[in-house]
Amino acid sequence: MSGGALRLEALEVRLEGFRLAPLTLAVEAGTYLVIVGPTGAGKTLILETIAGLRRPAGGQLFLDGAEITALPPERRQTGFVYQDYLLFPHLTVAENIAYGLRRRGLRRRERETRVEALAAMLGIEPLLDRRPATLSGGEAQRVALARALAVEPRLLLLDEPLSALDPATRLRLRGVLARLHDALGMTIIHVTHDFEEAFTLGDRVAVIHEGQLLQVGTPEEVFRRPNSEQVARFVGVQNLFRGRLRPLGDGYSRLHLDDISITVVGEAKGEAHLSIRPEEIVLSREPLHSSARNSFRGRITAIEDRGTLAYVAVEVPPVFTSVITHRSLEEMGLRVGEEVHIAFKASAVHLF
Amino acid sequence: MRRRRTEPLTVLFAALGGLLLLFIAAPLLWTLGAVSPAALMAALGEGEVRRAITLTLWASLVATVLALLTGVPLAYLLARHDFPGKRFVEGLIDVPIVVPHSAAGIALLLLFGREAIVGRLLAPLGLRFVAAVPGIVIAMLFVSLAFLVDAARDGFAAIDPRLERVARTLGASPWQAFCSIALPLAWRSILSGMLMMWARGLSEFGAVIILAYHPMVAPVLIFERFEAYGLDAALPVAALMILISLAVFVLLRMTTRRPEGRVR
Predict the structure, then answer these.
(1) Do residue B165 and residue A51 have CB atoms under 8 angstroms apart?
(2) CA of B170: which chain A residue's CA is closest?
(3) The complex's ipTM?
(4) Are residues B172 and A103, on separate chains, in Cβ contact within 8 Å?
(5) What is the per-residue pLDDT across A60-82, written as a single tens digit (0 to 9) for each?
(6) How far apart are alpha carbons A304 and A310 in whole angstroms?
(7) Long-range residue pairs from A39-43, CB within 8 A, at least 24 positions apart, any chain
């Protein structure tokens, strides 16, 4: 299975009083692109237009260099997974997965072989004879994925695929998606309003807000270096990092990133993502002698005064952002370029 | 825990409603009770009665199939698309229910009569509507098609259109998506609409009698026997038709009862 390269050329999406600015966007073959935007930003419409389920009001779509703007959905080879699964209720799980294979005229034997292989890959073999109404959310979403993958899509379109699931299931399925992408290498476009999903899954992240495509880049670029105030405000201050964990043996672990290491609660190893809420990071001019296990010295690279609160970016590196009151900003007399100390507790680090 | 006392309001409403239920059930049961099994069998033994009943069942079935072929596509369009004049179309479908059925018969006669425009057009094809089976069929079709179209439309409307969209992305043409997704999921509604329409067609008298007194359908036969020979002569046929209608009705309840899964 190989991915397709998708290009949107001034694509216009419109629906009853709702419209998006013309979208131009190139997605390289094999990329996992996450489109983040608030609910109601028209993300579903974009996916449906790419799938050919809606006619664009203008612009063009190219898949692997060939124009597909006018191609009907059944000839585009895109897999589509909706947030609420949309399994065919009158068919068994196996029949759901085999649906696209039937349409392609595969023989019964071949269909069964393919269905079993997909079921094994997604861990749903015991469910094959069940009806969709009897499945849990996580099970249903795995079946929906298997059904979409069955037709070997050049493009897998995921519309908030994890949003309807409970947190534990969501975490598991996020792992499934990452593994599928690594194993199959197809192009995935995944829309969500969840920043953690965007940060952990995306090779690239596109931010859509108020009908505009604001920024496209790697997750690090988008979350650490928003290209506009709009993006910064929308994505918020995340203090998102990625690094390698090593257990310390005393109930804590160390996460190495850039030249520093951060102590976190719990013993774990391997690649991990973490975030720290800006209000958990304490700023001071003098070295801090507190119970906080993590303290570093850095240089202020930016101060954003928003009235009652102020955001201070401190480059250690990496860059941490802390929020303090406007009053303490004035009392400390902080300026860009000055050296400060930051500290946060091991328990303030959120691993995901 | 003390048992809650039944509200006086509930008691009063149940009594009033009970009167109405009695009003429905009593005449039907009385009619069935007034006819001995022997008399029923005797009526069934008469060629004229058997022919009338067969013709009624058959003509109503043909009308239902005609509505199935044209009304289900219409119902699908109404459920899936918005277009100017849609409300008018939906209203038009229900008009035959409110028009007096004898008036409907007159209206049909005006178009399908021997010298009328459609009647003359179709005569070379061997289709005669006055005093002929095709006339009975179109009379039944006219007065009962709304039952099938409305039921089918509601059935399609209850299916999430995104199910068909998913099917399209999986390689189904619009036609395949309709046949493999929409149709099976709406099938129960369509079937119950068909039964409802069939039952309504069986009982049609007013429109049929204007177009075709002969050949005689069962409701017309009941009328004729009552007019010519009185109540006792009409009773066995009436009882037979009530029994047939009840059977269809039980069938209908059986198709609509099981709420299988959730159709989304």
Answers:
(1) yes
(2) A100
(3) 0.82
(4) yes
(5) 999 999 999 999 999 999 999 99
(6) 6
(7) A39/A193, A41/A208, A41/A209, A41/A210, A41/A211, A42/A13, A42/A15, A42/A18, A42/A208, A42/A211, A43/A159, A43/A160, A43/A191, A43/A192, A43/A208
Q: Choose the mutation target among A103, A154, A158 for the interface with B, i.e. most B CBs under 10 Å.
A: A103
Are the C-beta atoms of B149 and B64 separated by less than 8 Å?
A: no
Helix (H, G, I), strand (E, B) or coil at A186: coil
Q: How far apart are CA A11 and CA A297, in angstroms?
A: 47
- Strands across the sheet containing A6-12: A23-27, A6-12, A58-63, A66-67
B28 backbone dihedrals φ, ψ, rounded to 5°? -65, -50
Can you give the pTM of this predicted structure? Answer: 0.81
Q: Do B170 and A52 touch (CB under 8 A)?
A: no
N residues, chain A: 352
Inspect the interface and report whether the beta carbons of B165 and A78 lie closer than 8 Å.
no
Q: What's chain A's Rg over C-alpha atoms? A: 23
Locate A189 and state its tokens: 């476009």
Tokens in use for A214?
């604001």
- Establish if B259 touches chain A: CB-CB under 8 angstroms: no
CA–CA separation, B248 vs B40, rounded Å?
Answer: 19
- pLDDT digit string, tens, across residues A193-245: 888 888 889 999 999 887 888 899 998 888 777 787 777 777 776 677 888 88
Q: What is the pLDDT of residues B132-163, one digit of tens each?
A: 999 999 999 999 999 999 999 999 999 999 99
